[in-house]
Automatic annotation (TrEMBL):
General function of this protein: Exerts its effect at some terminal stage of cytochrome c oxidase synthesis, probably by being involved in the insertion of the copper B into subunit I.
Organism superkingdom: Bacteria
This protein's UniProt keywords: Copper, Membrane, Signal-anchor, Transmembrane, Transmembrane helix
Protein name: Cytochrome c oxidase assembly protein CtaG
Gene3D superfamilies reported in the protein's UniProt record: Ctag/Cox11 (2.60.370.10)
Localization per record: Cell inner membrane
GO-annotated cellular components: plasma membrane
UniProt main location, coarse: membrane
Record keyword Nucleotide-binding present: no
UniProt family annotation: Belongs to the COX11/CtaG family.
Lineage of origin: Bacteria, Pseudomonadati, Pseudomonadota, Gammaproteobacteria, Candidatus Pseudothioglobaceae
Signal peptide per UniProt: none
């Protein structure tokens, strides 16, 4: 009888702990995944630089960067790149911008999520300044020009000649 009580107690302990552990594991996976993506460039996640550092620049090497924009359903802001593409030299910093216009009579809050293709290029696409670093607040009928300052590091595989940067804007509650 005593061994049966031990088995029952172990069973209920495991049954109680399993959902708690699953919850904490799921909760911890999001920040761990974000850090993993930022370090490796996995899933097209771009990196950051804190200052304009000096890179070795090869003026003969050129890469075409194409800019794209999307908004998720329910996000009432028109959003798009100011220019659709630009030719860049790896190691040099460039500035461009995206334009967003709130088409409503309400304040809209959103967050842009970047993605780079091909994914091999993501680890070498670094942003110094980006509207995607923070949530954006759009006043009613406000049009905003949002700056992007970036560099493609010269270590990028020389076979890659075209890179696409895409943003997807999501609506936030506040």
């Amino acid at each position: 009888m005593e061994s049966r009580q031990k088995i029952t107690k172990k069973f209920w302990t495991k049954l109680f702990l399993a959902p708690i552990l699953m919850f904490f594991f799921a909760y911890a996976m999001v920040p761990i995944y974000d850090v993993f993506c930022e370090i490796t460039g996995f899933n097209g996640t771009t990196g950051r630089v804190d200052s304009e550092q000096a890179y070795v620049v090869d003026e003969t090497r050129k890469i075409e960067v194409s800019f794209f924009a999307m908004t998720m359903g329910g996000f009432p802001v028109q959003f798009g790149p100011k220019v659709s593409s630009m030719v860049v030299i790896p190691g040099k910093f460039y500035t461009t911008s995206y334009i967003a216009k709130n088409n409503t009579d309400e304040i809209v809050v959103g967050q842009a999520v970047p993605s780079v293709a091909p994914t091999d290029a993501a680890a070498y696409f670094k942003k110094l300044e980006c509207f995607c670093f923070n949530k954006q607040v759009f006043k009613p009928h406000e049009q905003v020009e949002m700056t992007l300052r970036f560099v493609i590091e010269p270590e990028l595989d020389e076979r890659i000649k075209d890179v696409s940067l895409s943003y997807n804007f999501f609506k936030l509650k506040s």
